[in-house]
Amino acid sequence: MPWTRRHLITLEELSLAEIDQIHATATAFKKILGRSVKKVPALRGKTIVNLFLEPSTRTRMAFDMAAKRLSADVISLDGASSSTTKGETLRDTAENIQALNADMIIIRHAASGSPLYLSNILDIPVINAGDGAHEHPTQGLLDTFTMKEHLGSLKGRKVVILGDILFSRVARSNIHALTKMGANVTLVGPATLVPHWFTDLGVKVSHDLKSALADAEVVMLLRIQHERQSSGHFPSLGEYTSMFGLNKTRASWLNPKAIIMHPGPINRGVEIDSELADGDRSVILEQVSNGIAVRMAVLYLCSGGQPESVVTTD
Amino acid sequence: MPALWIQNARVIDPASKRDSLGDLFIANGKIAASLSAADKKRAKKIDAKGLIACPGLVDIHVHFREPGQMHKETIETGSRAAAAGGFTSVVCMPNTAPVADSAGTIQLIKDSITRTSCIRVYPTGCITVGMKGQTLAPIGSLKRAGVVAITDDGDCVQSNELMRRAVEYAKMFDLPIMDHCQDHSMTVGAVMNEGIMSTRLGLKGWPHAAEDIIVSRNVILATYTGAHIHMQHISSKNSVEILRRAKARGVSVTAEATPHHIALTDETLATYDTNFKMNPPLRTEDDRIAIIEGLRDGTLDCLATDHAPHTDYEKDKEFDFAPNGILGLETALAVSLDVLVRQSKFKLPYVIDLFTRKAAKIVNLPAGNLAEGAAADICLFDPEEKWTYDAKAGFSKSSNSPWHGKTLTGRVKTTFVEGRIVFENGKIK
């Protein structure tokens, strides 16, 4: 099946076949990353703009590195150095980037829906690198890619996502991908951060950590943001940790072969104990590595490349 | 001015329970029982066969942005949009810049109305100074300056004590208080209804409980003080139920619904189109149905548009950053006919009543009927004509409408104010 999308805005809109295509393409690129020369000429002569209007370390660097591994030229703009600080609108900023002959724009923005808004304005592909609490599609793709590497098919597998679901774009993208892939997803956390509305997305919602973690094959932790405490979503970080933090005892409730994931950045000692974050069940750094291959796949496909052509890109 | 003779119309005047095929006579700007033979000869005759003649529509909730935000709308352009929608009397909100919290600002607004408006525009004043919710505005002076009601619309008085005092004080002047019901502590940063759709879209939700709590507060204050409180743009099922119970007990509360809350739900936000962003937000299908039922059984007293113009460039941004509000005046009648008459099987005279007599009654306007001797404010419309609404070609200075490009059924043909044609066949006269 040929790849037909120009933009990557959400995982909600992707079919299972499209997710599989991205994963297959990422697998091919991952092999290239294992070579001594880790670069292919697939996007030589193309210019990609990283427009990050919200702080980011690993996503921005991973996109940057993925584009460079494909031989594209990369320009990075952040909120502080762009004209948005002078009051320029997002439309004007984006139209200027397009007028400068960029071939693709990767956007991170604190406002949900911003990538869709840009995709309706611009003629060049728009890649969503995280929009508000809406979606973070490449994170969802790299997370499921990593799960597949460890578990094979995700059909019928029990996956738990634990933490601040309400404000998490990572959770939403993972929910869309995982449910399409046939996984059984359970969301866990305090009721204030895991509202019942999520059941409408085809997942279970639980506030009982023990029963949720029992026999889970994947537990994905989400960062607890300090500002949620001041907005009344939970009483204190200490209380959160005592009720929902993943420690050695609680990890023992998981399936013995379960993997522990986290999209980062980690609050050590809050949502997860250090020994677990660094332990042999943790695949947190594998997620980061896989992020490059998955993003290479997304950039390549949305630039017009086709999955079956990856092997010939070099 | 020659007499006017509207012939062969279906005349619907809910105030006098008239619904019959016949003629309307206008002499000296007023409704007449008939014309003399000589006047009949000289009268301007309008053949209204197939059309409905009803009292000029009344909207007790519009934003005309003057003074201070005249790039969005002016009293002149807003009044033209109103005339094009069949409205002859509108009540404009005080959240201008500066806000209308002094007699001087009210006078400024009244001067502009006199100079530029083609219909009747009535100002309101603020409940609190600067609409800051801290101290009472000079409500007596505002009444003397000509306001027909007071409201902090766009905002909501959060202090129960201050609201109680405002209600008591305004009652002394027989001045209605209108309230935008929103508990701020529950809606910080909220941009749409809280629920399944906000969860999917990752947008901050505005729970209906934040409206229900203030509606309940106002019911309690109206009960306690005996004063009348009008609840603006009700959007939630629970609020409708709270009001229904209050009215059954005889509490002096009234409430309005908007055409957009009876026609649309939060499902329309799936594409983050800012032309569907408003406050209170579009809610669920359950809420929408409950509001329609509230209108049917009289729990909700009237329709009002909350006409809220914003320029294209203000709306053309990320959803979180776009302002709340949509246009309403030019589409209100067609949308309401569609939802209430065609879909919900309301009787047409009942819907006209919601837009005329019942609306006028809430703020005591001299409008909304075709009684002999009443000012000849008339709306003539074709209930069956299909037309495509082009917001950019409309009469408002702005074009932020969810109905832009949509085909609507029911079109205003002519609008009369005191017997004078102010709008006819798509043109302001």
TrEMBL record, chain A:
Catalytic reactions of this protein: carbamoyl phosphate + L-aspartate = N-carbamoyl-L-aspartate + phosphate + H(+)
Pfam family, one: OTCace
Assigned keywords, A-Z: Pyrimidine biosynthesis, Transferase
Gene Ontology MF terms in the entry: amino acid binding; aspartate carbamoyltransferase activity
InterPro entries: Asp/Orn_carbamoyltranf_P-bd, Asp/Orn_carbamoylTrfase, Asp/Orn_carbamoylTrfase_sf, Asp_carbamoyltransf, Asp_carbamoyltransf_Asp/Orn-bd
Domain Aspartate/ornithine carbamoyltransferase carbamoyl-P binding, first and last residues per copy: 6-149
Metal-binding listed as a keyword: no
Entry binding sites for L-aspartate: K86, R169, R223
Domain Aspartate/ornithine carbamoyltransferase Asp/Orn-binding: 155-301
Record's GO cellular component terms: cytosol
Subunit composition and interactions: Heterododecamer (2C3:3R2) of six catalytic PyrB chains organized as two trimers (C3), and six regulatory PyrI chains organized as three dimers (R2).
NCBIfam families for the chain: asp_carb_tr, PRK00856.1
Function of the molecule: Catalyzes the condensation of carbamoyl phosphate and aspartate to form carbamoyl aspartate and inorganic phosphate, the committed step in the de novo pyrimidine nucleotide biosynthesis pathway.
Matching HAMAP family: Asp_carb_tr (MF_00001)
Name of this protein: Aspartate carbamoyltransferase
Automatic annotation (TrEMBL), chain B:
Co-factor requirement: Zn(2+)
Keyword hit for Hydrolase: yes
InterPro entries registered for this protein in UniProt: DHOase (IPR004722), DHOase/Allantoinase_Hydrolase (IPR050138), DHOase_cat (IPR024403), Dihydroorotase_CS (IPR002195), Metal-dep_hydrolase_composite (IPR011059), Metal_Hydrolase (IPR032466)
Binding positions for Zn(2+) 2 per the UniProt entry: D153, H180, H233
Protein name stated in the entry: Dihydroorotase
EC number: 3.5.2.3
Family of this protein: Belongs to the metallo-dependent hydrolases superfamily. DHOase family. Class I DHOase subfamily.
Annotated metabolic or biological route of this protein: Pyrimidine metabolism; UMP biosynthesis via de novo pathway; (S)-dihydroorotate from bicarbonate: step 3/3
Primary role: Catalyzes the reversible cyclization of carbamoyl aspartate to dihydroorotate.
Cofactor note: Binds 2 Zn(2+) ions per subunit.
GO cellular component term of the entry, any: cytoplasm
Chain positions recorded as substrate binding sites: H63, F64, R65, N95, N279, H310
Gene Ontology MF terms: allantoinase activity; dihydroorotase activity; zinc ion binding
Enzyme class: hydrolase
Catalytic activity, as annotated: (S)-dihydroorotate + H2O = N-carbamoyl-L-aspartate + H(+)
Pfam family, one: DHOase
Domain Dihydroorotase catalytic positions: 53-239
Alphabetical keyword list: Hydrolase, Metal-binding, Pyrimidine biosynthesis, Zinc
Active site: D306
Superkingdom in the source lineage: Bacteria
One of the protein's GO biological processes: purine nucleobase catabolic process
Binding-site residues, Zn(2+) 1: H61, H63, D153, D306
